[in-house]
Each structure stands twice: as C-alpha cells, then as structure tokens.
Amino acid sequence: MGNPTSEWVKSSDMAKALGILPVTLHVWREKYLKDGYFKEGVHFVQTGPANNAMYLWNKSEVLKVLAQFKAPANGGAK
Questions:
Q1: pLDDT at 60
Q2: For position 77, what pLDDT does the model report?
Q3: What span, in angstroms and rounded, lies between the C-alpha atoms of 64 and 78?
Q4: Cα separation of 33 and 67, whole Å?
Q5: Strand pairing class (55-58; 8-10)
Q6: pLDDT at site 46
Q7: Number of neighbours of residue 71 by Cβ within 10 angstroms
Q8: Cβ 9 vs Cβ 59: under 8 Å
Q9: Would the pLDDT of 53 be above 70?
C-alpha cells in the first residue's frame, strides 16, 4: 500500500482538502486511473471488495499528480 508513513484520508476529507465534492473525486479516480495518472495502491485503496467499500486516499501522492495540472503561464496555448 505505498509509503506506510503517508497520510491516508477518507474521500470526504480528501475532497474537502481539494475544495471539491467527493463525487468529483471519484470521477477523477476513474478518469485518472484510466489515463495512467492514478495507480491503485499508490494514490488510493479500496477498503474491501464490495462496490460500496470506502476509499482511502494518499494525500501527498494525489497532490503530486494534481500539481502537474497547474494553469499554464502566459495565457496558455496559442
């Protein structure tokens, strides 16, 4: 499960830290997992096999990925 000293938080706490809704976080999980940005066991874990099992998020690893998506400088693409 990644770095054992990392801070693993519930979806609601991760979403609050990012200023988004938990449902948005789960949409991102599906998209970024498919796109290769998130990896299960590094960025998040599911606490059980059931579809309604809770997710825990590695706060520092998620923030590293999201930092890659910062706004472009000088007005962006032309």
A1: 96
A2: 60
A3: 27
A4: 16
A5: antiparallel
A6: 96
A7: 6
A8: yes
A9: yes
Question: Six-digit token pair at 7?
Answer: 């801070």
> By the 8 A CB rule, do 55 and 47 touch?
yes
Helix and strand numbers, DSSP H then E, in the chain: 3, 3
Alpha carbon distance 77, 65 (integer Å): 21
Residue 41 has phi, psi (to 5 degrees) of 95, -20
Amino acid at 4: P
Question: What is the 8-class DSSP label of residue 72?
Answer: P
User: Residues for the chain: how many in total?
Assistant: 78
Does 17 score more than 90 pLDDT? yes
The alpha-carbon radius of gyration of the chain (Å, integer) is 14
Note the pLDDT of residue 13: 97
Of 16, 52, 78, 53, the closest CA to residue 62 belongs to 16
pLDDT at residue number 69: 83
